[in-house]
Write a structure and sequence with these properties.
This protein has about 170 residues and is of the alpha/beta class. About 25% of the residues lie in helices and about 40% in strands. This is DUF4136 domain-containing protein.
Length: about 170
C-alpha cells in the first residue's frame, strides 16, 4: 500500500511540474560546426539574479558535457528571456436551474471556476550564429512556477527545463 501511494505521489508531482517545449530552427544550418558558445552581452533574462545564476550554471554544465566550450569568441551566442503569467483555472462546475409549465419553459445555467489561477513561466532560449548575427535555433519552454519555492526546488525545476529543452539540440535533420 505504501508503495502504491508513493508511486501516485510521484506521478502527481510529475504531472504538476511538466515542461512543454516548442522548437524551431534553421534547416540550412550545419549545427555540427558549432563547438563554442557564450551568452549575449546585453542579455536581460527576466529571471531573478539567483535564478539566472542557477540557470547559467546548469546550462554551462549541460553544454560542456555535450562537448561545447564557453569561449570569449564563440561560434554561437545564447540569449535567454523569461516571463511569468497567470492562467485561468481549467476546471469548472456547471449549475443550472430550469422550470416550465404548460407550453412555457425556461432555464438558466452558470459555470463556476474551481480552483485558483496557476502561475506559469515561459523561458525562451535563442541561439544566434555569432558570425552572421542570425537566429539559428529557438526553444520555448513553459512550466508551472511557484515564486515561494525553496532554492533546491528552483534548481531542480530549472534543471528539468534545461534537460528537456536541450534534449533536442543539436536538432536532427530530416
Amino acid at each position: 500500500m505504501r508503495y502504491v501511494l508513493s508511486m501516485l505521489f510521484v506521478v502527481f508531482l510529475m504531472g504538476c511540474s511538466s515542461v512543454q517545449v516548442k522548437y524551431d530552427y534553421d534547416k540550412a544550418v550545419n549545427f555540427s560546426t558549432y563547438r563554442s558558445y557564450n551568452y549575449m552581452p546585453d542579455m536581460q533574462s527576466g529571471l531573478s539574479q539567483l535564478d539566472e545564476n542557477r540557470l547559467l550554471r546548469i546550462l554551462d554544465s549541460t553544454l560542456q558535457v555535450r562537448g561545447y566550450r564557453l569561449a570569449e569568441e564563440p561560434e554561437f551566442l545564447i540569449n535567454i528571456m523569461s516571463q511569468e503569467y497567470h492562467t485561468a483555472p481549467k476546471s469548472s462546475v456547471g449549475l443550472g436551474i430550469g422550470g416550465g409549465g404548460r407550453n412555457v419553459g425556461g432555464g438558466i445555467s452558470v459555470g463556476v471556476p474551481v480552483g485558483g489561477s496557476n502561475t506559469q513561466r515561459s523561458i525562451q532560449f535563442d541561439l544566434v550564429d555569432a558570425e552572421r548575427d542570425a537566429l539559428v535555433w529557438q526553444a520555448l519552454a513553459e512550466s508551472g512556477y511557484n515564486n515561494n519555492s525553496s532554492p533546491n526546488l528552483r534548481e531542480h525545476n530549472l534543471s528539468a527545463i534545461v534537460k528537456k529543452v536541450f534534449s533536442k539540440f543539436p536538432p536532427k535533420t530530416d
